[in-house]
Design brief:
The protein has a two-stranded antiparallel sheet with strand order 1-2. The protein has one domain. The chain is flat. It is mainly α and about 160 residues long. It has 7 helices and 2 strands. It starts with a helix and ends in a 7-residue tail after the last helix.
Amino acid sequence: MKWFALSQAGRILFPWLVVLSLIVLYRGHNLPGGGFIGGLLGAAAFILVGLGDGMAEAKRRLRLDPVTVLGIGLGVAVLSGLPGLFGEKKSYFVDQWLPDFTLPLLGEMHIGTPFVFDVGVYIVVVGFVLHAVFSLDFLAKTDSREELEKDDKPAGGAD
């Protein structure tokens, strides 16, 4: 079912919620926020689209299976610890900084392994929340237990 108000709100607010989630992600390195809260905001953007235009539209905008997104985030989080493990300073998450660079609107950027870990957490949270929401949507659309069991059986298989 499509709801006009939610559909329009999703179209307008989706990009802004994603940008806000990325700002909260970056801000959380030095101030309150970070990967978890940013990931919840990012997932909320997709959920808003799903509530307005249907979960199929939210899945289309995500472009990847939520479990794949979750795995990518877990990989990023694990990889963020490798510079501390194999680096010269032998410190975990501390004093491991990527080279500084300057962005036109944001100024000088300092990104280290804690930020990379937060990015991994962000991606994991988006993947997990969307997997849970899409699964609940699937369960809500099934009418009976027989329909659920039918989906679990291989095609052409005998009992």
